[in-house]
Amino acid sequence: MFESFYEFEHTPFARDIPVSELYASPSLQDTLGRLTYAAKRQLFCVITGDCGTGKTTAIRHFTETLDGAKYQVLYLSDSKLTPRHFYKGLLEQLGCEAKFYRGDAKRQLHREIELMRGIHHLQPLCVVDEAHLLDREMLEEVRFILNCSMDAKSPMSLILVGQNELWERLNLQAYAAIRQRIDLQCKLPYYDRSEVEEYIRCHLTYAGTEHDLFTDKAIDEIYRFSSGAARMVNKVCTHCLMYGAQSKQRIIDDHAVSRVVQGELS
Fold first, then answer.
1. What pTM did the predictor assign?
2. Which of 2, 65, 150, 171 is the most exposed place for a label (fewest CB within 10 A)?
């Protein structure tokens, strides 16, 4: 309902905003550059960040802008992912029925990748989301996934995406063999206050307005509440716009933000 009150053409803080309209923070641009390099060189990359820092959004941005004539993206997100289900999931995305035994499925996957490269001239890129939930067996399997051609070249680009605890685990001595294989590491931080302001402005521009609907003090309150987490910025801004439309406020000030936070989000 607030869209009509503020005369928006699009909903400004929704999850399905086109990637071309997303706020490209310096950290996001750096991450996208590293991911592009990883895809071209078939490297092993780890992306970490706290909840709400935009990890999945960054992956969506990256995969949607990849050249579909050059790359085949394979995506998995399963908190109970096992090596067998890993190979099964990838093979199913390639249109194949996986062999039952892990070793057979692994060899089958490598053959399919060789065919993909040789016949279709596509480079495979595998993204494993929520990787901080993977157990030790699955993380150990990463070493074997990347083994190909006597260790000379990886069969695919592999990107693990997870919360910061993933990197904390990989830093343990028990995972030294895996850590040594990591080619690139990216950490998505929370936005600072100026980035929160740019984020809000960018999303309002996408919605179709050039007006500053949030006062400077309102943005201060939004930053204080969200701690710079994009997900929380979306949440508080949406609630503020709903409140503003209901109370017929064209401009959202710090008092409105405080009222929303205390009354609806605390």
1. 0.89
2. 150
- Residue 113's φ and ψ, nearest 5 degrees, are -65, -40
14's tokens = 């929704």
Measuring CA to CA, which residue among 6, 50, 56 is closest to residue 226? 50
Question: Which amino acid is located at 210 in the chain?
Answer: E
Enumerate the H helices of 65-180 as residue ranges: 83-93, 102-119, 136-145, 164-170, 176-179
Of 94, 73, 84, 222, nearest to 161 by C-alpha is 73
Q: Measure the CA–CA gap between 200 and 198, rounded to whole angstroms.
A: 5
Residue 176 lies in a domain: yes
For the packed helices 230-246 and 193-207, what is the interaxial angle rounded to 10 degrees? 50
Q: Are residues 31 and 114 in the same domain?
A: yes
Hey, what are 88's tokens? 């099964």
Range of the domain at 162: 26-188
Residue 19 is assigned to a structural domain of this protein: no
> Which three-class secondary structure state does DSSP give residue 47?
strand
